[in-house]
Amino acid sequence: MREPNDLSAFWMPFSNNRGFKQAPRLLAAAEGMHYTSSDGRSILDATAGLWCVNAGHCRTQIVEAIRETAARFDFGPTFQLGHPLAFELASKLGMIMPEGLDRIFFTNSGSESVDTALKIALAYQRARGQGSRTRFIGRERGYHGVGFGGISVGGIVGNRRQYGTMLGGVDHLRHTHDLARNAFSRGQPAHGAELAEDIERLVALHGADTIAAVIVEPVAGSTGVLVPPVGYLERVRELCKKHDILLIFDEVITAFGRVGKATASERFGVTPDIITMAKGLTNAAVPMGAVAAGRHVYDTVVENAPEGIELFHGYTYSGHPLAAAAGLATLAIYEEERLFEKAITLEAYWADAVHAMKDLPHVIDCRNIGLVAGIEMEARAGAPTKRAMEAFHRAFDSGLLIRVTGDIIALSPPLILEKTHIDEMFGRLADILKAID
């Protein structure tokens, strides 16, 4: 007979279940910049949980908003009905999105946001009489969640290998990661804008009148913090406009201050037609995602539909009251504490700390933008990912939470951090890297 909590029942996501359950590392509480492990140790959070706790852990303002709402209004459907919190949050989100992208569709995760954006793109093309535009263009090394649409436009083979046939009619741009020319770039790398010309190649191959949308992460996060080359996003925007193709920015990671602005679109000065978001929207206190669509997209779908439902899509929990309350409280904290501006203020100090890792053993690249960083290590011969995973385990055991993807350490701390936290993070990380063979 199993023990009540022997760890076997929970099939953990994106995890080595066998390895973890032999040597579990458990988190039990969180506050501010720190977790507390199940054995009572303080763990400095260098990853904002999973790119998502941008305002720090267990913020009283968010907790109280959730508690008060749960006691008063636990759930209200948004199919042919509504409640004020969802409309208020949509309005406030629209105000911080790029101009014109103020039609907000709520989801429950980044994966749902991506699949929603893809469906909106198809509905838009059909509504304007371009029903032949059904093809999507993603990018190698792109991560767009784990729905079938997201893994199809994504560019991570491991996320697709087990699942057979993907969404049809998908092609991919080349990724922009170029260690030979761009290693140890501070901010945007100098080389690679020409890779945007892949859009022209795919237009020539498939025909512009078959392509509904191009989807890219402005900064590719989950595959190791791949910062866009200077001029790359601008050229992607130009080519999509030239060929009348919708441009979707997946900002599930980059929205809400991670790169120093409300969106990466604002940071880089490039406005897409649709933005997906999640993570920092509610500071991860309650699951929630959203899609911000341009008015031209919304109006085309809605105004050209027959009377009744215009978009046959949605989720039971779209705009859930507790998530909306958490979102409103989170946006208030961002504004009151000027956390987006703080990310810009700390960016140079952060960059100096990142690039101080350059000469440590096995480090082959350091890269940064805003308050996010990637430190890439040379893979062990015949054992890719093992060196980074050892760093992950050593870091946790020494009181530091990092994230690893492949042989890349990805850092994305809560935006409430101070210079002393940066010093502590990179001091501990340096010691760890020196100790790994």
Automatic annotation (TrEMBL):
<protein>
    <submittedName>
        <fullName>Beta-alanine--pyruvate transaminase</fullName>
        <ecNumber>2.6.1.18</ecNumber>
    </submittedName>
</protein>
<comment type="similarity">
    <text>Belongs to the class-III pyridoxal-phosphate-dependent aminotransferase family.</text>
</comment>
<dbReference type="InterPro" id="IPR015424">
    <property type="entry name" value="PyrdxlP-dep_Trfase"/>
</dbReference>
<dbReference type="GO" id="GO:0004015">
    <property type="term" value="F:adenosylmethionine-8-amino-7-oxononanoate transaminase activity"/>
</dbReference>
<dbReference type="InterPro" id="IPR015422">
    <property type="entry name" value="PyrdxlP-dep_Trfase_small"/>
</dbReference>
<dbReference type="InterPro" id="IPR049704">
    <property type="entry name" value="Aminotrans_3_PPA_site"/>
</dbReference>
<keyword id="KW-0663">Pyridoxal phosphate</keyword>
<dbReference type="GO" id="GO:0016223">
    <property type="term" value="F:beta-alanine:pyruvate transaminase activity"/>
</dbReference>
<keyword id="KW-0670">Pyruvate</keyword>
<dbReference type="InterPro" id="IPR005814">
    <property type="entry name" value="Aminotrans_3"/>
</dbReference>
<keyword id="KW-0032">Aminotransferase</keyword>
<dbReference type="GO" id="GO:0009102">
    <property type="term" value="P:biotin biosynthetic process"/>
</dbReference>
<dbReference type="GO" id="GO:0030170">
    <property type="term" value="F:pyridoxal phosphate binding"/>
</dbReference>
<keyword id="KW-0808">Transferase</keyword>
<dbReference type="Pfam" id="PF00202">
    <property type="entry name" value="Aminotran_3"/>
</dbReference>
<dbReference type="InterPro" id="IPR015421">
    <property type="entry name" value="PyrdxlP-dep_Trfase_major"/>
</dbReference>
